[in-house]
């Protein structure tokens, strides 16, 4: 499962002719890009004598797969598509130019469908599309490959060793993609490696589909390792779920687009409340513990937001270039303002009681305080101090559950569908310890180990953030 | 404006070790990819002595652009990201590996904002997001660059020479992104090259932003050529608009996602009508004259559709493998079925009267007949013939205007925003004869000439379509 | 407009002091109103020795019914609430002042829940809320009265004698209120009195709940009569369903509000299409075969409609006061216009082929021609004739199925819930041959015979229509 | 402005024949109902020599008012429609049977439109539909009566004496009915009688339209009284606005239906969160300070709510019949439960700090504590104590601003439209000191004095509540 050697920076950059600064000329030479294909773990890596059979899609009544239908291991997707031909300053040019195996059906498969016992589990918080992924895993396994033993593991990882899995079939899951949440139920914690792998063995599962966030994916790595260690003929596929979109490598996580769409509602409400008041401020807290993707995308989608605060960009309230100064200007100009704040922003600025300093969440991290409530209170204090005789209103909205508990929208439903089918094709082809997801718009397989470590943060040093910030025209709090 | 030489097939492919067919091995060697940067037309190409000034974003009160903020001509985006390392069969490996200039602000600009007179025009049919593009062109020019003379040209190309342009400013366009259609009005036809370019000169416009479909883009090419010919200091930027998503090179066109989202409503309605009847068929016609993207995406998003008919894939009604046989099976199995048909599908199958054979639309093409109405009638005839004593219902929905006349959803609003800002940055940097759009997720500049010719069809020979078809499990009418 | 004294009918009117003409004085005396309670059929009418038992709600674990909880036959609802004290001209004052029994639980019931076999059937076209009514009949019978044998009769009246009824329970119907259409399926026709009543007897049903339109209610009258004739201990309750809102006596039919809400979408789309074109006309056809309620309410809700055409008010196209003249004025004034037309409007104006003249629908009435398509064509001819050189666009939307195939909105869900519970309480109390529905905001029982005959038309002679017409400021085509 | 004498209980009740308890018989005699018309204040009450003119609607180009078009003072609407013919126990039979003047145009009016200067003001919190009312007041005055001087008073009552009113016209307000909030801005407080009436005089307003809640209506009474006292030729009309629906006499307040509709979203989200967890509780706080109408209607509309807590019905947590016992049972049965709580419920149960005991809102009442936060905390404590080893989740949603800051739905838009036109017709006819609103489905005029005092509470002693409670099957906490 080694990621192949990457003796890289293999970018033969063009010589910039020096006129770029003058505004419009372009390099003249062809450029060459080296890249290194990422290796994917496979059951055959430790079970060398597995039998293969021809993909049963060959026998479909309705369609007739041509040779092009099947993908081979030589079909790859480039990870890096933005380049600086001058090789001078932008970071992309120095990162390794990896490629990942393309997702899709293989002509030979490593599982006899009549022997498959598949398990599906959902872990962590809710995210739009979970039920679609489950539904499509069931429908895909059943319809495309003829698998008949498919089980839903209830209530997260603990379901592998407590409680009874539910038998699933296409009829049962028929309408699940129109429902928010997860019919299989979910929970946090409950990760007990031995119990889980024993449970997998005891119940005879040989395909395990794990839908969850970064913590869950780290758990999946451990499970995968243990399964390798025990040399079990069990494939493990992860399907990354994080409404925050904070998982790296893949373009974006499922449910994220739905969340951004839904976030327009509270932003609209905040905008209306602010506009309808005298010196009205609408304040919306959006999900995003360590990353501000939802806040940022929702802001750019809405165009009603004056300022968007995210964890990746520190901010301050008082003084020159601070939030209060900016809001003062906006209120004078427009009579109202709308603030969006990601839940993870400003955590260092909120005073904590001694008890709060000690408090830890299930993962051992300091608990998050409510940045929205704190901001509301600070805003009121500021106004009462600086403008004691003027009307002022702050309306604070925390729409968290209303955003994440909805069914996936059309974009995410399609995404979840292709994600689930990608996972099935990969597992049937004998891959294991992988996740699937879109890279530059095409579905790829990625070692779960890589994804469990990759973090997708808003890079505030990057051109993109700067540019986007220029769209909103909001302060950068001293960043440059 | 030559696309640089492409001494191609520059893919040093790995030697496939022959085990791919056995299900899981991967190539061992690093691979190298050559690519050729696309050249973009620039005002300096024919006006060599233009002055440049420093980008006024430098003086923003609120943010402090770092060096990384500005892009140069060496920042490019790869077009091709899916590769077959074996170089054997899949088409991508043989196409030229082009790269396009990345969109974004340049440090030196070729327009003094105080001398800019910008014109914005919308042409052709409605598409979600047109008003957002207009709004953001106005707000971006005004807020980022300090342009104060911005005009809306009314009712399409003819507005350049008839009627008075409307002066626009941020206050006026404030809420336009929440409205469907185009406040500037639109029309088809009215393209009179001389009158248009004269109108541009007479009114003193030096930046022209043209929002329209492929016909409009072909017009933009002509306008651009004439402007070059006259050596006018006028930059022309196109913003491709096609709800059908049939424009090539760019990832997808704005409004397309909204249309797919909206298409879920009629599909749901058709599904409900079909399910509530005995042998009920729900039939939905979706936009897509020469391409089936909306139909295809809406089908994959919905999961309630039994069969999706698109122009790129011929179909037939009677006999083995035909539509009727398939529907017969579905009705027996489920008691109902849902059909989605793109408006351009099956045009050759519909009998035409002599008058209809002669009829031509504004562009000289045969007019489209209503494939939905025809299908409904054929379905009824078939049933009456084959099952005269059984109940049967076909409910046909044509939701065209309800889909395209809505405001953009969040995804498309963000898209339109970045599109407009991309166009502004490009024009201010002196580029001309270009369009902007996302390529593999990043915004790029593309010669309008290329886009006007590129057609984005659903490639039914490609792996992707085949795979997708396997998701819906629908007949392929003999395709393989 | 004399408000003359008139101790007419049963109205003891005040003496008007003659100052009405001066603008504001009022009668001084108390007035008296006679009214006559409507009699409701009861099983005891022809089965005099039925046993009663105490309502099992008495034994509820969770709530404790007080005496006020139960209604008696003396609880009634007045039908007429708008009066003209002068008694002179307005119609209300001369109609009989009826009262209807109030719906709700009775303390003594005529059915032993353990012996109940309830049948539920849906007939005719779809209407938002059908599934809610079914769900609540099931849940109410089960939870409130402990009934355990509840059956869904499939696909309309024919289901009583062909096919097998489906056993229903609360778990099964749990989410039905969130689904459009009817899970029980529906059909038109299939009314065979003998077979139906035999089917009821054969299957041992003793409570029959019939959900359907006016035709269905006339069928219910016949079934009820036959059951009386056979002296069967079978109660028949009707639940009037007509999305057109054309059933009389009750305030409005379920699903109607949802339809009006949904109709805003096509009207918005038509408005956007019209506004975005030069001389654009948006044309929307809304349901309403003999009555224009949906069109009228949707028009008043929208405020974007310039003219609303309904079956109750004849219109004409050409000449003074005609539609074309009006549209000409609107296009000159605003550049666009929106038309709403009820499907039953203008049927006499559309030319029919000989075949069409002969054609009859299932009920023997002439088939409806597409007034929208006809209007679109007439509009185009008119413009081409009168303004040959000007641009003109008509966009025609027929949203019928998209409006009626949706789930009920909150208002209608509540309505359907109370409707179903009303029906249950009435049937358990031994009433039969009745329907339930709100009269002046409170739920009442009404003999099905009355409702089957009552027609709810928009009274264009009435003050209300005139006033409403003044809101839209549209032409009245010579009406006064 | 006396409400005419009400020598009441004039109900000649039928003699119940004693068989009601046996389940089905009805009274035999006609019954008679006395009622007393309510008197409405009129400018002529203190300005006896006002001139009248013929309603300019007579001269409309488009429609031709018949005699029936105009209403007179003898057109009334009965308030009481539910009767107990036995006169025995139910409260309705003993209340006075009032009638109110019907709203609509009068043939003679007391204002010359060319001399009208109308002022519109919005006060208090946001409510869906405020902008529609404003829009329709402007459009109605302008289009129907030809009034040209219409002003929006900014930011509530204080706008009469500070700041400049905004001139309004139909073009300006064209799209306001599609926007939430109030474009005129609103505020609480600022009521200074002298300054307000002086401001009215100084600015020459002679029609004042006041949109606001019960506090605002009490202010309107005072303003009206002072105007009478000063004998000003100024008509005052109130338009009751309370999203809580806590104003009496009228059927329901505008915006209420929209709020109930919107409340389905958080309830759905809470339901999904609860269902997706192990022992999950979804908790939603809905508006309703002294009344539980939104909570109650939203509960009945949703059918996903297990228990609805409202201010009118006390509840308790611990012990037999308490909330915890009920939830325990539901969790055992279904694995999850959904709670809806009105913001004013349980205020006496929440412990207050000394500071909180002192705290008063702008009206001098004790501030409301967050019942949702308190319940969430109590639920967690209960579970930790009683089920320490079992998973448990409470998700709490406070959707307040997301519910009230939306535009009115179709039902409320129509309502607001008729409300505004009713107010205009009443004012033009010289009535003053009145509000308008629907009574039993028809629009009426009511003395503002009456409405300012009338409270619309959920009557938990009444049959209706009991019956409704039986629908939800929730505990009644000892009520009977």
Automatic annotation (TrEMBL), chains A, B, C, D:
Q: Which cofactors?
A: Mg(2+)
| Reaction catalysis annotation | beta-D-fructose 6-phosphate + ATP = beta-D-fructose 1,6-bisphosphate + ADP + H(+)
Which EC number(s) does UniProt give?
2.7.1.11
Q: Where is the composition biased (Polar residues)?
A: 1-13
Q: Where does ATP bind?
A: 125, 188-189, 213-216
Q: What class of enzyme is it?
A: transferase
Specify whether Transport is a keyword of the entry.
Answer: no
Cite a single GO BP annotation: fructose 6-phosphate metabolic process
Record-stated family: Belongs to the phosphofructokinase type A (PFKA) family. PPi-dependent PFK group II subfamily. Atypical ATP-dependent clade 'X' sub-subfamily.
Listed name of the protein: ATP-dependent 6-phosphofructokinase
């Amino acid at each position: 499962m080694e990621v192949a050697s990457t003796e890289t920076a293999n970018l033969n950059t063009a010589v910039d002719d020096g006129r770029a600064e003058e505004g419009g000329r372009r390099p003249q030479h062809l450029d060459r890009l080296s890249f290194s294909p990422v290796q994917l773990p496979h059951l055959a890596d430790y079970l060398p004598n597995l039998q293969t059979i021809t993909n049963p899609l060959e026998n479909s009544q309705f369609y007739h797969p041509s040779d092009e239908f099947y993908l081979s291991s030589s079909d790859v997707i480039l990870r890096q598509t933005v380049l600086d031909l001058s090789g001078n300053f932008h970071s992309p040019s120095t990162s390794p130019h990896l490629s990942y195996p393309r997702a899709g059906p293989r002509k030979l498969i490593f599982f006899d469908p009549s022997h498959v016992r598949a398990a599906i589990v959902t872990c962590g918080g809710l995210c739009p599309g979970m039920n679609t992924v489950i539904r499509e895993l069931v429908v895909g396994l059943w319809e495309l490959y003829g698998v008949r033993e498919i089980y839903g593991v209830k209530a997260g990882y603990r379901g592998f060793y407590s409680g009874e899995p539910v038998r699933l079939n296409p009829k049962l899951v028929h309408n699940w993609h129109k429902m928010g949440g997860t019919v299989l139920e979910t929970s946090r914690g409950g990760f007990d490696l031995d119990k889980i792998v024993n449970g997998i063995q005891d119940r005879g599962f040989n395909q395990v589909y794990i839908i969850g966030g970064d913590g869950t994916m780290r758990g999946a790595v451990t499970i995968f390792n243990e399964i390798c260690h025990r040399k079990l003929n069990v494939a493990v596929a992860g399907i990354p779920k994080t409404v925050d979109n904070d998982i790296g490598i893949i373009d974006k996580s499922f449910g994220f687009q739905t969340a951004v769409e839904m976030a327009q509602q509270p932003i609209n409400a905040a905008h209306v409340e602010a506009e309808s008041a005298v010196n009205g401020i609408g304040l919306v807290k959006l999900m995003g513990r360590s990353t501000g993707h939802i806040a940022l995308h929702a802001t750019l989608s809405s165009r009603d937001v004056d300022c968007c605060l995210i964890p990746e960009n520190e901010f301050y309230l008082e003084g020159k270039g601070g939030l209060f100064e900016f809001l003062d200007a906006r209120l004078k100009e427009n009579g109202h303002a709308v603030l969006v704040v990601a839940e993870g922003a400003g955590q260092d600025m909120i005073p904590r009681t001694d008890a709060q300093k000690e408090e830890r969440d299930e993962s051992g991290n300091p608990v998050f305080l409510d940045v929205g409530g704190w901001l509301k209170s600070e805003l009121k204090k500021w106004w009462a101090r600086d403008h004691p005789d003027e009307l002022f209103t702050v309306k604070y909205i925390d729409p968290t559950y209303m955003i994440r508990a909805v069914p996936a929208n059309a974009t995410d439903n399609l995404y979840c569908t292709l994600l689930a089918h990608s996972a099935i094709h990969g597992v049937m082809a004998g891959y294991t310890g992988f996740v699937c997801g879109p890279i530059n718009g095409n579905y790829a397989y990625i070692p779960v180990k890589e994804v469990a470590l990759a973090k997708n943060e808003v890079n505030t040093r990057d051109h993109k953030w700067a540019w986007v910030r220029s769209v909103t025209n909001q302060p950068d709090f001293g960043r440059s």
